[in-house]
Amino acid sequence: MTIIDRVEMNVPARREYARLIRLAVAGIASRMDFTVDSLEDLKMAIDEAYVIALDDPVQEVFNVAFIIHPDRLEILVPGLGSAESLEDELLQKFGFSILNSVMDKVEWTRVDEGSRNLLMVKHVV
Length: 125
Fold this sequence. Notes:
With 125 residues, the protein is of the alpha+beta class. The protein has one domain (5-123): Histidine kinase-like ATPase, C-terminal domain (Heat Shock Protein 90, 2-Layer Sandwich), CATH 3.30.565. The protein is built from 3 helices and 5 strands. A hairpin with a 3-residue loop joins strand 2 and strand 3 (72-81). The radius of gyration is 14 Å and the shape is globular.
């Protein structure tokens, strides 16, 4: 049986906590033997997810779960709000294109009318 660890964090959705989230993903990634380039990709991805949460005026808490598998890291960000304007939507699409370029897999699923979950996966090479 493969051991899978799950680390969850809930931080206020305010800019001053961005560094804490980056440190968490860096610590987990270094424990998993990701390369330096992959570590930078992971930090960029978590930054983009955090920015999406910060841009949502009703988002008070940023929730994230790091699911640690032997061969990959999954990052789940539940409960992100939907874009309220065309400008917000375009910014989210730009952020999503960044996520797609640095992660191996990105899934954006609608939970209900006003909420979506973001799942990002990076494989250990």
